Structure formats: structure tokens, C-alpha cells
Amino acid sequence: MSRSVILAFLSALAVMAVVSGTVEDTIRRVVDALVVASFEEWSATFIETNDKIRGDVLRSTLFIPDISANLSGCEDRHKVAAYHIVTERLEYFDLFSKPNQTRLPTLLKDYSIVVTNNSESGFSVNGILVTETEVFVDRYIAIHRIASPLDFKTYGRTDS
């Protein structure tokens, strides 16, 4: 076989390996990327790692804490990152239409975010004000900014 045929074959295999990622691969890649990023970088990091070119796209909603917040002292940044991602794409209208006390499942297994105020003047989840809606929205994902990080220990545990 010629060298160019072998290189073409190996290139095709590499592309197939990248494109054939599973949803679980995407979840792991997204959460791992958010763990090492600052809140200021979460939007770009989320969009970049949750990309159909890299594998299955995770239809989801990300709540980004205000950039002045930090994760210093957090015992488990993976749990914090996973807890800020809801497992369905929710634009502002979708969120606003949810009744108070609606639980939104997250990537953190057995934990959910709770809609605590669905009024236009002060929409909040887990008691945290949503400060900017639809920072980014496309067919697969929605991103909203919140005033501070969500605490999965306060509201999060889903009753089994």
C-alpha cells in the first residue's frame, strides 16, 4: 500500500473516532472542561466542548454564575460543574413557564435545580436570581447567567 493511502485511512479512522463520541463522552468532556475554567470562561468552554463535530451533542441548559464569584474552597468542582447543567434545553420562555418548585434535573445524578420564583421581576432558581437570560441559545443549548453559584446541598437532592 502506498503511504498516502495509509495516511488517508488513518485520517478517516481518527475523524470517525472523534465524531462517534457518545453522550456520556460529551458529558465527561463538558464537565471536565468547566472544572478547570473560570466562571467567565464557562460560556465559551461549554459551547466549544458540547459540539456536534466532537460527538453527540448534549441538549442542555447551563447556568453560569456571575464572573465575580469563584469556586475557591469548593470540595468537589466536578459536582459543582455538573450541577449547573440541566439535562434539557430551556430558553427563557420555557423556564418562565415552569411553576414554582419545579425540579429541573441536572447532570449531577439524583440532584436537581428548583425554580423558586417564576415572576418576571425576579426569576430565580434555588433562590439565586437569574440576572441575564439567553446569553447564548441555539438548537441544542441555552445559557443563562445567575447572580452566584448554585449550592447542590441546599435544594438539590431529588426525593426518591
TrEMBL record:
Transmembrane spans: none
Domain of life: Eukaryota
Entry keywords, A to Z: Signal
Signal peptide: 1-21
Protein name per the record: (rape) hypothetical protein
Lineage of origin: Eukaryota, Viridiplantae, Streptophyta, Embryophyta, Tracheophyta
Gene this protein is translated from: BnaAnng10920D
